[in-house]
Amino acid sequence: MSEKSLSITNKTTEQTAAYPLLEGTLGNPTVDIRALKNDLGCFTFDPGFVSTASCKSAITYIDGDRGILLYRGYPIEQLAEQCSFLEVAYLLIHGELPNSEQLQTFHNEINGHAVLHESLRVFFDGFHYDAHPMAMMVGVVGSLSAFYHSELDVSDPEQRYICATRMIAKMPTIAAACYRHSTGAPFVYPRVDLDYCENFLNMMFSRPEKRFLEQAHAIDDTAVKALNLLFILHADHEQNASTSTVRLAGSTGANPYACIAAGIVALWGPAHGGANEAVLSMLEEIGTVDRIPQYIAKAKDKNDPFRLMGFGHRVYKNFDPRATIIRKTCHEVLAKSSNHEPLFELALALEELALKDDYFIEKKLYPNVDFYSGIIYKALNIPVDMFTVMFAIARTSGWVSHWLEMTADPSTVIGRPRQLYTGAPRRDFVPLAKR
Ligand code: ACO
């Protein structure tokens, strides 16, 4: 037993047991209560895992009270300012920043896996043109498991690494194919001469049939820069709902591509990654600055289910450092954009009013990363229903890093929570004729 411990007494039985306090590198100590059931005959009740650590992890650290986010120890502000998304993905997976040779190799590996199997492309034909792109993502990413299953040995670290890079590589190709399917445009193949974000934008917007004409698509530097930043900010966020879903599914030994599809499902909800789409819908619904007070009042009304989308966070209770970075980028992108974006002005006015309101101050509700990300995506001409897909592309680097960490950890066991049963006590069956 470690030196520090926490004693728990069951007042009913007067039994006391001591539990080790585990110390991480940073953050609160964590009580190891795995022996609680055997010692004191009870479980812990913690819906939503508000106070429960489900694993040890060395990937990302968040201090929600101080607005700190570190990837492998590096502050998000420094990475956002100086890195490419692939550098960050490499860092998350390997634990260290790459040198230029390692980065080039990683870049080549990603480019080598970016193309889709031709048989996978026909899966898109099964979807109606107006299918939500997240629905297509769930189906198509899940079906990668059918292409890479029989020969896959997840106990082999080399094969696990290939799975991880393959996932990161194929996400932009699948995402762009979802968009092009919905518009009826032909799919565009990934190009080895482009970097990750350039490739995605090219697969989304290029018009190969117009390549000899003046109006042929040119990849916009501002868009590439903004996308790179958004992907870095969304790359990982420790044990959030979607990452925990990937870990839970992965803890059973399930096919990793299917586990990532499970992560995409969890990300889709408006309380998580779907918030960026919900923010845009909310701003469009509010419409004009004079209507903001009415919506703030709705958000405060206990009898109204409406919440200010893009506000509040389970962990950040002072500010979301990603929101601070992204707010600045919003100004830059919109200053260079030819489209005047009234929704950004509306968002700023909403933020200002909410931050002065006692309800939001008392409950520590601040804009989160997704309050602004949708506005940037909109300025980049990414359709609203693709916003959460963008998040999924970026978060795949975090999901696969956690999956790799978990599968390499010999102490990993299948995730299996307990429950507080509130149903009927034991009773005898009554035959149909007697009911
Ligand atoms: N608008 C109005 N009130 C809110 C909001 C909001 N956006 N968020 C929380 N509250 C209120 C709740 O009604 C609750 O009030 P009560 O104490 O009187 O019951 C209190 O603040 C605490 O809220 P919880 O839901 O218990 O907080 P939790 O930590 O579980 O939820 C969450 C965090 C889900 C993000 C929540 O703030 C929310 O729904 N926000 C809007 C959706 C959103 O922006 N999600 C994106 C999160 S970031 C991401 O995933 C990338």
In CATH, what is the homologous superfamily of the largest domain? Citrate Synthase, domain 1
CATH topology of the largest domain: Citrate Synthase, domain 1
Using the alpha-carbon principal axes, give the shape: globular
What's the CATH architecture of the largest domain?
Answer: Orthogonal Bundle
Cα-atom radius of gyration: 24 Å
Element string (H = helix, E = strand): EEEHEEEHHHHHHHHHHHHHHHHH
Mean pLDDT: 92
Helix content: 40-55%
Low-confidence stretches: none
Task: Report strand order across the widest sheet.
Answer: 1-2-3
Number of strands: 6
What's the end-to-end separation, in Å? Answer: 56 Å
- Ligands bound to this protein structure: acetyl coenzyme *A
Portion of residues in beta strands equals 5-15%
Largest sheet: 3 strands, antiparallel
Structure description:
This protein folds into 2 domains: 5-53, Single Sheet (Rubrerythrin, domain 2); 77-409, Orthogonal Bundle (Citrate Synthase, domain 1), CATH 1.10.580.10. α9 packs across α18 (387-408) and α12 (275-286) packs across α17. It has 18 helices and 6 strands. It has helices at 36-40, 76-82, 85-94, 100-113, 118-121, 133-147, 157-183, 196-205, 221-233, 241-250, 256-268, 275-286, 292-300, 321-336, 342-355, 358-362, 369-379, 387-408, and strands spanning 5-10, 15-22, 30-31, 60-63, 68-71, 74-75. It is mainly alpha-helical. The strands form 2 sheets. The protein has a 3-stranded antiparallel beta sheet. Strands 4-5-6 form a 3-stranded antiparallel beta sheet. The longest helix has 27 residues, at 157-183. Bound molecules: acetyl coenzyme *A (ACO). Residues 271-273, 275, 299, 307-314, 363, 365, 368-370 line the site of acetyl coenzyme *A.
